[in-house]
Amino acid sequence: MNHQTSPKQMAESPERARCHLQAHLQKETAAAAHTPASPRPFTIALSREAGANGPLVARAVAERLGWPVYDQELLTRIAEDMGLRTSLVQSVDEKHVHWLLECLQSFSATPHLTEGAYVRHLVELMLSLATHGRCVILGRGAAAVLPVATTLRVRLLGALPDRIAAIRNRFGISAEDARTWIEKTDRERVRFVQEHFHKDPTDPRHYDLVINSARFSVEACAELIVEALQRLQPAAAPCARPPARSST
Length: 248
What we know:
Layout (H helix, E strand, L loop, with lengths): L6 H26 L4 E3 L3 E6 L5 H12 L3 E2 L1 H11 L3 H5 L8 H8 L8 H18 L3 E3 L3 H4 L5 E7 L2 H12 L3 H23 L11 E4 L5 H15 L5 E3 L8
Parallel strand pairs: 2-4, 2-5, 3-4, 5-6
Antiparallel strand pairs: 1-7
Helix pairs in contact: 1-6, 2-10, 8-9
């Protein structure tokens, strides 16, 4: 199966997916003028620095709301859709793959996944999830992609020493190795969002809520996020309820 993507397609795919969702929302808005309205479903996009307890907070939020979490689940879904091993998808997840490496891989008989193909499937999947809402998406540039009107965008961060301690505890590694892993992971995640979505994920203006997870417990972070969601949801634009079916 050929999953290679030209540079032009890599640039156009996320924008095409966003335009598709925008057109869908415009149709719903037009229909809302003729039918009773209900609140539009929200999605929580949770961005995080490495070692800021993103996975733990995401699952704590989801448990309180009864919502699903999409983290590694996104990779599994993309792998299934593309007929690839999950390990291949993980190799490009939130990472920048140099163009020369992708060119060399194209001459190999070993199955591989280009960064562009991954991003295209990732964006389409996240936008599809956002049309239904009521889920938590961890990382992957979701805060930069999903519609602002129906997304609570949260950023978790913390001082480097606190994050090093968290990673040491998580992986059982030295402080030096933890620092190296954090710096590399942060650098790859920032470049991934900047290059594909043209936004700086470290800019607090792109978020509705920024939390220092080293100052609050996982449970406290989750409570703050849920409270922010409850305050933000009433301000969401209404959407149309589906028309009732007539009995026959």
